[in-house]
Amino acid sequence: MEIIINADKRLSAIMGSQNYLPSIKYRKIYYICEAVQEGVVLLYNTLTRQLISLSESEYQEPNDELIRFLVNHWYMIPETVDERSLCYSMMQAFYSRYEPQKSGNSGITGYTIFTTTDCNARCPYCYELGRPRIAMSDEIALKTAKFIEKKRGNNRVNLSWFGGEPLYNSKVIGIICDYLAARDIPYTSTMISNGFLINQHSAEEILERWKLQRIQITLDGTREVYNNTKNYIYDDENPFERVLQNIEYLTNIKVRVSVRMNISSENTENLKELVVLLAKRFQGNQHFGAYAHPIFNEFGELERSEYEKLCQVCVDIEKMLTEYGISNGGGLYSVKTCHCMADSGKSVCVTPTGMLTLCEHHSDDEFVGSLDTGIIDQNVVDSWKERIEEKEECQTCFYYPMCVKLKKCVTGYECDYGMKVFWEQNTKNSMISSYRSWLRKRNAAEKEVLNTENSEPSNQAAVMAIISAARKEVGYAADGNVSKYIVETFRGDRYKPWCMSMINWLFVQCFGAVKARQMLFQTSGFTNYCYMVLEKFQDAHRTSETPQVGDLVFFHINAWTDHVGLVTDIENEQIKVVSGNVRLENGQNGVVELWYSLNDETIVAFGHPNWRVA
After folding, report:
1. Which end of the chain is more exposed for a tag (fewer CB within 10 A), N or C?
2. Do 528 and 497 touch, CB atoms closer than 8 A?
3. Beta-ladder partners of 50
4. Directed axis angle between helix 304-324 and helix 268-282, to 10°?
């Protein structure tokens, strides 16, 4: 038995470990999804969010020790326990403990921005057909940027570019990004696009100006089917190939591309051909993934039996994607307190005219306010929080602990049309993807250990040097976000959070700038954003949940990975950490050395610097 993904720390803090009593009869809890992969059985507990792997023999004939583990970790419960009541009690405790923290972190952090409702394609299934085609003006774009500045609180924001086709009016993307960048407002962006126009933009603009991290591009079939379906307004001989080349371009510059394959009754067989084509072209590309989804049955055009057939085709295609290793995976969900942006209380959509809505499907109605007034219609806001009534079959559904469905959402009633099989397959794909990732990391770690054993021992002198330098900084204090670490690292007096800049500064002082960038995997230049550095460590396969002295420890304090420190000591399930930009009693921000429990819920991961470079 192996633990692939640990249970959610917050849920574990609430639920604890279930006591095992030999006198009680236990049964498998409903909230388990199973998948078989490479001779092992994967079990995902949707109540605790833990993923484990069992050998086939362990699965068929678990010994007493394994049964005790399964009981302790809520894979098995007493026969008399009602898991629905158990789930309800756990979630209520979760909301009461963690929702106040969420609401206390004021500010809107997610902005879906309609650069235009016009498009360069004419897809027959588009839910925006018949709506006015309006482009956002420069004036509204500037208003949008100022609105973000005013409403974000002290948070990093994510901008989701939407349309129409967002690149059909890309000028306003630059206006908004330039305004935020000039004011040192941290942001990243994503995009939903057909991908046709992406090659008109340089890598520098995409990465540095837009800070684009992910993009979703729809492919409806292979060349003929795709070109006929999209029906672009341009006289282009082969739009399909152009979009494929643009996808390659994006993945080459390390933008994550998620291909959505829309399934209709007309293209089911052709999409299977598309999977094979995509596998030949993108298999092994870590920045590429694909997933299938039936076209929304928003207006009930399809009978239930017809839609159920599409769902089954979707499952078949998802299996193909997984077998070829190009499934989007999707990730295993953390605890959801909302369904989506509409009921999150943290997101808003901005239309081209400056009106505000809560759902991207409603660009011409369901307004809650405007850029001038802010969100003012609380009745509409509250209506988006109303959830559908549970049905009897919900009680025994594996997905129940993760399921949040809204009355007003087009996807709220998908289970009535056979979508449960799709969600089950999607979860299995994510389990398999997580397991494969765990295998790769384990194999890489074993290889690293072997290489270390066959080479010189680790550079303990370098580790002790950085710890000594860090402890000398304890007691330093500064007013707010201006510190010597920012000034000396970035060659200027810049007003920014400086916990990561202090780490950069320490490594520069000890090893020089060139080696420091290599050791911290920032070869293209230093950044003071913790989440970006964490991603660099993850890309280098240098993160784990087990700390070593000299590691960087990344924390999730607010809405993202936003704090970092240096591990200086480890003792009895605790770590001692030197970190900067910590609020002091006198109101200043300073450098401190504190003990943290390894079970601290704010710890995201530990990053291992490349000590061999030192």
Report:
1. N
2. yes
3. 45
4. 20
pLDDT tens-digit series, residues 564-599: 999 999 988 889 999 998 888 887 889 999 999 887
The torsion of the CA quartet 523, 525, 530, 535, rounded to 10 degrees, works out to -40
Determine the residue type at 74: W
Q: Enter the DSSP assignment of 605.
A: E
Give the separation between CA 556 and CA 572, rounded to whole angstroms. Answer: 23
Tell me how many degrees the CA angle 57-62-66 measures, rounded to the nearest 5: 125
218 beta partners: 260
Please give the Cα distance from 581 to 563 (Å, whole number). 9
Q: Of residues 423 and 232, which shows the higher confidence score?
A: 232
CB 604 within 8 A of CB 534: yes
Tally Cβ neighbours within 10 Å of residue 129.
Answer: 10
Alpha carbon distance 27, 29 (integer Å): 6
Residue 607 pairs in a beta bridge with 543, 552
What is the amino acid identity at position 564? Answer: V
Among the listed residues 169, 95, 181, the one whose alpha carbon sits nearest the alpha carbon of residue 137: 169
- At 463 the three-state DSSP class reads helix
Q: Could you check whether the bond before residue 164 is cis, i.e. omega within 30 degrees of 0? A: yes
SS3 for 591? strand
pLDDT digit string (tens) for 107-148? 899 999 999 999 999 988 887 777 889 999 999 999 999 999
| Residue found under tokens 């054993």 | 453
